[in-house]
């Protein structure tokens, strides 16, 4: 066992020296603990898991990034093309995270979770926000590779939160893993779910740590699972002192989420609402409109009055006026893109709440 411990220490020191020479800094915090776990597992040493079995409290900034709409892309293109895009994506994002003294906690499909340790580096929230902005800037270069490979553009949403988590090793001598757990990690994940294409959203706690460093948009309250009160988030616009701006995406107008919600509509002509009502089914919904399946054809720009049963938020909204923008026909069924043109503030708030709940999944609050 003593020989294994010496071998583990020697191997760890050699790898850290190599990383320092290549990147300018050794692994720290969570990344260092994971490296130790990997080496311990490889050497069959149970001492490491026992040594790190106790969870400790750590002050971290958590960054979670996810590619928007990648699942649908993966269903269309061959695996080789997908890997041709994902490899440089993960390599580029990892390099940016390490350059800003963060550590990659895990890859989850096309998502990345990174940690920035306040104990290891003062101002970790500022480093995390800078990292996120540079990650968004790097997407332009990656999308040039996508174009050359005949792939559609990729867009990433990023959520950041800061706070105290519990961190430590779980497992045994045969396999152990460094994990961080707690409500602050969950909140980072929830915030990421709200981020539109190309956005960087931060929590109030992260904003408090970097408000004199990052330029943000006005605060927005969102409803988050597990929280009885709305949570304040802000979009990062730029880092003035570094001359860096988040690229603006015109297609970021609203969250869109798939759903199946029946609704009733009546046609409006010359400001007169028809007495006959029709049934439809909403297949995705956003703050400002829906995509819906209809059982009848109608002209573009047809005006509608809609009634939607929002059972998830315990209400029915019946004061929505809308306009059909486009209509597609397939085997006698019609799919319409519908934009809301008029609705009360109360109905708008209820729809926003519905979208915010749906985008986080269908589990109970």
Question: What's the short version?
Answer:
The protein contains 9 helices and 17 strands. By secondary structure, the protein is α+β, with helices and mostly antiparallel strands. The strands form 2 sheets. Strands 1, 2, 3, 4, 5, 6, 7, 8, 9 and 10 form a 10-stranded mixed β-sheet that branches. Strands 11-13-14-17-16-15 form a 6-stranded antiparallel beta barrel.
Describe the structure.
This protein has 365 residues and is an alpha+beta fold. It has 2 domains: 52-245, Nucleotide cyclase, GGDEF domain (Alpha-Beta Plaits, 2-Layer Sandwich), CATH 3.30.70; 256-358, predicted glycosyltransferase like domains (Thrombin, subunit H), CATH 2.40.10.220. 35% of the residues lie in helices and 37% in strands. The strands form 2 sheets. Strands 1, 2, 3, 4, 5, 6, 7, 8, 9 and 10 form a 10-stranded mixed β-sheet that branches. The protein has a 6-stranded antiparallel β-barrel with strand order 11-13-14-17-16-15. β4 (155-171) and β5 form a beta hairpin.
CATH topology category name of the largest domain: Alpha-Beta Plaits
Following the backbone from N to C, one meets helices and strands in this order, namely: HHHEHHEEHEEHEHEEEEEEEEEEEH
Would you report the number of β strands? 17
Which CATH architecture of the largest domain would you pick? 2-Layer Sandwich
Question: For the residues shown, what is the average pLDDT?
Answer: 83
Spans with pLDDT under 50 lasting ≥5 residues?
45-52
Query: Which class do the helix and strand fractions yield?
Result: alpha+beta
Whole-number total of structural domains: 2
- Counting DSSP H or I runs of 4 or more residues, the number of helices is 9
Biggest β-sheet strands, sense, barrel = 10 strands, mixed
């Amino acid at each position: 066992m003593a020989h294994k411990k010496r071998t583990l220490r020697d191997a760890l020191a050699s790898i850290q020296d190599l990383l320092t020479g290549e990147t300018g800094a050794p692994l720290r915090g969570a990344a260092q603990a994971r490296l130790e776990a990997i080496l311990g597992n490889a050497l069959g040493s149970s001492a490491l898991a026992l040594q790190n079995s106790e969870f400790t409290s750590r002050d971290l900034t958590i960054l979670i990034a996810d590619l928007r709409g990648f699942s649908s892309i993966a269903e269309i293109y061959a695996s080789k093309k997908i890997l041709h895009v994902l490899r440089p994506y993960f390599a580029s994002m990892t390099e940016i995270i390490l350059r800003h003294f963060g550590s990659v906690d895990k890859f989850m499909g096309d998502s990345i979770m990174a940690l920035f340790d306040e104990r290891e580096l003062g101002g970790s929230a500022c480093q995390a926000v800078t990292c996120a902005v540079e990650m968004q800037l790097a997407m332009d270069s990656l999308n040039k590779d996508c174009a050359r490979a005949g792939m559609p553009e990729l867009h990433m949403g990023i959520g950041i939160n800061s706070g105290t988590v519990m961190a430590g090793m779980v497992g045994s001598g045969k396999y152990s893993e460094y994990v961080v757990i707690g409500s602050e990690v969950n909140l980072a994940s929830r915030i990421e779910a709200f981020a539109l294409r190309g956005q960087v959203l931060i929590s109030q706690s992260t904003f408090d740590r970097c408000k004199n460093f990052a330029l943000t948009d006005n605060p927005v309250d969102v409803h988050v699972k597990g929280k009885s009160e709305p949570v304040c988030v802000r979009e990062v616009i730029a880092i003035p002192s570094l001359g860096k701006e988040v690229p603006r995406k015109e297609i970021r107008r609203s969250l869109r989420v798939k759903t199946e919600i029946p609704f009733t509509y009546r046609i409006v002509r010359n400001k007169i609402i028809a007495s006959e009502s029709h049934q439809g089914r909403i297949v995705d919904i956003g703050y400002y409109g829906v995509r819906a399946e209809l059982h009848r054809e109608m002209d573009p720009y047809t005006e509608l009055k809609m009634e939607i049963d929002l059972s998830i938020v315990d209400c029915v909204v019946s004061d929505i006026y809308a306009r059909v923008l486009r209509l597609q026909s397939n085997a006698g069924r019609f799919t319409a893109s519908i934009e809301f043109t008029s609705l009360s503030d109360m109905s708008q708030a209820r729809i926003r709440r519905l979208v915010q709940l749906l985008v986080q999944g269908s589990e109970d609050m």
